[in-house]
Amino acid sequence: MPTVAEYHRVADALDLFRLQSNMPTLREKKPFTRRVTLVYLRRTHSAFNTQNRQRHRGHEPSIGCIFRLRTPLFVRVPYGEAIACETVVALFYYSHRLLHHPRIYKHVHKVHHEWTAPIGIVSIYAHPFEHLVSNLLPPLVGPVLCGSHIATTWLWYTLALFSTTISHCGYHFPFLPSPESHDFHHLKFTQNYGVLGVFDRLHGTDNLFRSSKAYERHFMALSLVPVKEMYPNESKKDT
Ligand SMILES: [Zn+2]
Ligand SMILES: [Zn+2]
Questions:
Q1: Which ranges carry the Fatty acid hydroxylase domain (predicted)?
Q2: Separation of CA 215 and ligand 1 centre (Å)
Q3: For residue 182, how far is its CA from the centre of ligand 2 (angstroms)?
Q4: At residue 206, does pLDDT exceed 60?
Q5: Nearby residues of 121 by Cβ (< 8 Å), 6 or more positions away
Q6: Residue 95: in which H helix or E strand, if any?
Q7: pLDDT over 90 for what percent of the chain?
Q8: Residue 102 pLDDT exceeds 90
Q9: Cα end-to-end distance, the chain, whole Å
Q10: Reduced to 3 states, what is the DSSP secondary structure of residue 166?
């Protein structure tokens, strides 16, 4: 069992990698995290139950109807992942931008933006409509178009979930993709709608981000030195 002093030492060390200083405390995060996790587990549980009921009645689970069941050739896996990645980059940008339309935002996307300094589990904290059109459908289009195997699709969803959790985690850890871009989106609302930044560059929705301190820190750190030490704030306005 770690002592209180050891716990504080670890917390202080983690603080060096924290993006925003107004992040909620552990005590504030705990009930929220428990609530969202329970809702998600219940949904997953009922999806498995539906599949089991279908199997029990002698039907193939419905998910098997749209995906190949024959094992894919190894070379097809990266090809399927690349197509899935390209389609999600385009679809997520435009669906996310649509969710920021004033008429839609206040009814739907506002829920996700309750968190101006997000934490990992906020990646799946959204209005059900948003979860469907912006979180679940865009990653599904690529695998369906390619007729990907269900295992390739699961691999893709795992990578996508891993990536979105990192981009919401609130910490810029070494050897992991940079979360600066999406964290900046939660802070400023009208910047960085996309993933990878391609469509934001194309439509000029990253101009403020590109002139910020966060942009200088927007890279995968390959040393244990915190990026905030490499590129320190010059004024209190910098995050
Ligand atoms: Zn977000
Ligand atoms: Zn947004």
A1: 90-205
A2: 17
A3: 9
A4: yes
A5: 32, 33, 36, 37, 165, 168
A6: helix 76-99
A7: 38
A8: yes
A9: 35
A10: helix
- Ligand 2 geometric centre to CA of 193 (Å): 6
Compute, in angstroms, the gap from residue 149 CA to the centroid of ligand 2: 31
φ, ψ dihedrals at 200, nearest 5°: -65, -40
CA of 237 relative to ligand 2 center, distance in Å: 22
- What's the CA-to-centroid distance between 59 and ligand 1, angstroms? 38
Burial 194-204 (b: 16+ CB within 10 A, else e): bbbbebbeeee
171: phi then psi, degrees, rounded to nearest 5: -130, 140
Question: How far is ligand 2, taken at its centre, from the CA of residue 169, in Å?
Answer: 15
Determine phi and psi for 220, rounding to 5 degrees: -80, 115
- Say how many Å lie between the CA of residue 115 and the centre of ligand 1: 8
Length in residues, the chain = 239
